[in-house]
């Protein structure tokens, strides 16, 4: 598979290493807004850049007819526009807030637990995420997906809030420390006890391998997909 890498920071470089080990070829890399260029040698693009750059990078792929896998977080206020554009252009697109297989299993576990806990109103759900100090967005995209999974099964809770709790919202506590790769915990807290589930990434390899898997899956497809399609979790 011939790959274009849009964004060549911590994730871009991890993807380059692991994709090369799998026998894929990197034919294009982009690490700034001034670089445009032709992606047409690539079978698929993998986009891990910045919240400000993601939308124009994805559009660049749609314009050049290259399927695109995007893992950049912090731009989702534009997600619906991108989906419309993808359909209008008959392009191919996968976004995931987290590409690791472990986190995608954790998303399902989170929804299972949310359904189980829904009748037990004395337990209040809370989310905590911890990441490295260079991270630009808060809360993490993964924490937002976790919150959405809980909201789907709750009658009382209507939204999430960063570092703030009230009767109708789930608090997401965002902590930035050292070089933490990504830790997410969901607690159901009552006065009597706490029930917790946690995912802790030890390296970035899981995110990168999941993105490569998604790219391999997306080649020669059209349409909008998710990691559930890639992993057969639907
Ligand atoms: N979905 C997932 O599984 C997952 C996993 C890890 C990180 N992320 C997200 O991926 C993004 C990147 O993470 P990172 O740790 O590699 O960050 P990073 O800061 O190490 O790398 C980002 C790179 O993007 C480059 N860049 C800036 N503008 C650009 C542009 N216009 N076009 C192309 N590249 C540009 C920067 O030069 C930088 O090298 C973040 O949004 C992060 O939250 C998602
Ligand atoms: O390092 C990051 O930045 C990460 N971002 C994603 C998020 O916001 O959820 C995934 C975990 C790592």
TrEMBL record:
Matching SUPFAM superfamilies: Glyceraldehyde-3-phosphate dehydrogenase-like, C-terminal domain, NAD(P)-binding Rossmann-fold domains
GO biological process, one term: lysine biosynthetic process via diaminopimelate
InterPro entries, A to Z: DapB_C, DapB_N, DapB_N_CS, DHDPR_bac, NAD(P)-bd_dom_sf
Catalyzed reaction equations: (S)-2,3,4,5-tetrahydrodipicolinate + NADP(+) + H2O = (2S,4S)-4-hydroxy-2,3,4,5-tetrahydrodipicolinate + NADPH + H(+); (S)-2,3,4,5-tetrahydrodipicolinate + NAD(+) + H2O = (2S,4S)-4-hydroxy-2,3,4,5-tetrahydrodipicolinate + NADH + H(+)
Keywords from the named record: Amino-acid biosynthesis, Cytoplasm, Diaminopimelate biosynthesis, Lysine biosynthesis, NAD, NADP, Oxidoreductase
Record: residues binding NADP(+): 30
Amino-acid positions noted as binding (S)-2,3,4,5-tetrahydrodipicolinate in the UniProt annotation, renumbered to this chain: 132, 141-142
Binding site for NAD(+): 71-73, 96-99
Similarity-based family: Belongs to the DapB family.
HAMAP family listed in its UniProt record: DapB
Job of this protein: Catalyzes the conversion of 4-hydroxy-tetrahydrodipicolinate (HTPA) to tetrahydrodipicolinate.
Protein name according to UniProt: 4-hydroxy-tetrahydrodipicolinate reductase
Organism: Constantimarinum furrinae
Lineage: Bacteria, Pseudomonadati, Bacteroidota, Flavobacteriia, Flavobacteriales
Gene this chain is encoded by: dapB
């Amino acid at each position: 598979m011939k790959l274009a890498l849009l964004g060549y920071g911590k994730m871009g470089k991890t993807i380059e290493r692991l994709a090369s080990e799998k026998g894929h070829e990197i034919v294009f890399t982009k690490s700034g807004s001034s670089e445009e260029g032709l992606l047409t040698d690539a079978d698929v693009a993998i986009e891990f850049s910045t919240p400000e750059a993601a939308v124009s990078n994805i559009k660049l792929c749609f314009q050049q007819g290259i399927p695109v896998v995007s893992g950049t977080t912090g731009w989702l206020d534009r997600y619906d526009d991108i989906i419309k554009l993808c359909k209008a252009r008959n392009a191919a697109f996968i976004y995931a807030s987290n590409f690791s297989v472990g986190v995608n299993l954790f998303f399902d576990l989170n929804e299972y637990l949310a359904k189980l806990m829904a009748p037990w109103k004395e337990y209040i759900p809370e989310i905590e995420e911890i990441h490295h100090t260079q991270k630009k967005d808060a809360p993490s995209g993964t924490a937002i997906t976790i919150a959405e999974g809980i909201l789907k099964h709750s009658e009382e809770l209507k939204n999430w809030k960063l570092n703030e709790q009230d009767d109708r919202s789930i608090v997401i506590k965002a902590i930035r420390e050292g070089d933490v790769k990504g830790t997410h915990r969901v607690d159901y807290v009552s006065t009597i006890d706490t029930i917790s589930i946690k995912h802790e990434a030890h390296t970035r390899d899981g995110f990168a391998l999941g993105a490569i898997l998604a790219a391999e899956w997306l080649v020669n497809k059209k349409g909008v997909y998710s990691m559930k399609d890639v992993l057969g979790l639907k």
